[in-house]
Amino acid sequence: MPAVEPPVAPSKEPMPREKPAVKDHPRPSLSKEPLPVPPQASAPGKLPDQPPLSSPPQAAPGKLPDQPPLSSPPKASIPAPAQQAQGKPPVVEDKPPPPSPPKDSFPPVKLNIQDKFVILSNGILAVTISKPAGYVTGIQYNGIENILDTVNPEDDRGYWDVVWAPPGTKGTKGNFQRIVAKDFRVIIERADQIELSFKLAYNPAVDTKKAAPMEIDQRYVMLQGVSGVYAYGIFERAAWAQFGMPNARLAFKLQRQQFKYMVVADNRQREMPVPEDRMKPRGQVLEYPEAVLLVDPIDPKLKGEVDDKYQYSMESQDIRVHGWICKDPPTGFWQITPSFEFRSGGPNKQFLTSHVGPSTLAMFVSAHYSGEELIPKFKEGEPWNHIYGPIFMYMNNQTKGADFKLLWEDAKQKMLAEVKSWPYSFPASEDFPKANERVNVTGRFFVYDKYVTNEKVPAKGSFIGLGPLGEAGSWQRDCKTYQFWTRTDDEGYFTINFVRVGNYDVHGWVDGYIGDFKHKSPVNIAVGRNVDLGELVFEPLRDGPTLWEIGIPDRLAKEFYIPDPNPKYVNKLYVNHPDRFRQYGLWERYAELYPNNDLVYDVNTSDYKKDWFYAQVTRQIGARYNGTTWQVKFNLEDVVPNGIYKLRIALASATNSDLEVRFNEPKPSPAIFTSGRIGNDNSIARHGIHGLYWLFNIDVKGNTLRKGNNTMFLTQTKGVSPFQGLMYDYIRLEGPATSPK
Fold it and tell me: The whole model's pTM is what?
């Protein structure tokens, strides 16, 4: 099987483009106390020599009936920790793994079927699943009788659930349904593999108002000699009732008194609170239930911090491995996702990962950071079939007294091995195509902006992918199909590996340029025929020369001014951290910076890194919230009165907003553009630096502009809550069309 290359963190430097000179300009200051400084972490590469992961002690089966003692898992070689690039997937040194022992050197996989439970074991771990419901009620490993939280009832430890919305449901709300299977089957039972099915069927005559109109088949797979268990779900519907599905996931909840150290990235790991810390009187709920101030936590070192699960969200492309560590005995529980082809919303859709519980989530469909537009909605009689996963729940351990963080280093190596094994060869479902049933797609991607370069240039480090048939950019609102993405190398070459059979549009975008690329013709993928797309050229939207611009077109608001948090509401992890936008309450800092008047930006003297607030939020006056109006001042040496200028506004996020644009005459003069109500991604409240991408291309008549000084007014008119507003990605004013130099 061809190898899948691990994800590479390409350069984030924007492509060459016109850029005005920016003078150094001091930003407004916030009166505040000094922020707490997080403890210094060990420098990468300076950990003392560590022994490799050791074998766990022989574990008696405890309360898992009729099970042989668990034997030693294979030892793992631990590399030195590596530095993680900002905002990128975990950095790992891709070394060839040591030779694996032959399979027959490990005990066979065994299945113990009881009245209400089934137990999978392979001599390394034992997994107990309720029958026929399909709840994972216990995982025995490394001397721990049950890794899952025994404080919770058996149906609240490891489970699948969905939120489904009957016709007429507004927004992202719906009915919560934990999947309780009714039918249990053994799909494969061999010495090297066992696969089990726990299926919930749908009967339209009985279940119309009780359950989502679809069938869900939960699959669990255990392999010989493998320290973990795989899971995938087959979601299928026939010609049944109309409905929407705002959420679909697989959740695991671990022992709260043992698993207290959480890792989602090299530079995002820490000791976490326990659930009791979030409850009264130890915790104080802030503006919304997910955000809690730790007033009197059990661990006093956490006092005064804010805990919020949204502070640990990640983009889909970066969710490869995350999980929890127990320090005694040193044990790791990791969720590994080798591919994101089955998730909704494309590579930069954001999802929850792990959070206080201790919980670890495999999110497949979610309206977070997108709103209703990322809810799959099925019409009456619309059939559908989709496989979510497989994902891998990996467990590792090491010698007591060694650096527990080396468990994370081993988990990253295991993640690389799983990525290289994708697509897996073992799933029994015919709906999951194997490597020989998929196709590789190659090509070379260029970008050509006639006002920037005289010829096309390689689109270095750019996104290119196969997604749904539709308009340019439609991929980011797709939530029913599979998508396949990669990033180009320094010369613009790309390979998209292991694409499923079907018809696709070729989508892409290039950091440093606005807009979306879509190839002129769809691509048909058929078995046995690799596809070479040849040269693809993206010509970004452009009418005339740049007169001025604000920001960097990269679909993020990260380059703009992000304030320090209020010292009362700090997560110490994000102090002096590249992801400073993940702090709670940053929206409140706008009114402190601009207590009386809104932001005014001069394109000649201001610096967007210091003077452009990362979000245009509302302002509270008394008990009400009001929209805000920002001003952009600029000078034109000359104006073509009968010419058409072009204003391009790219938004990184919008939440219940209405943007109005005026030139030189503030309200109540008529706006030259109004967006209407847009967006519901809620990225301001959820500590995101982007949600869904919006691009507006606005004609500006020359007679609305003046020779000399001009002012553009950007008004966000809506005002209901502190979380409404816009995040800008990039703004550019172009002159009338001319022949480029």
Answer: 0.88
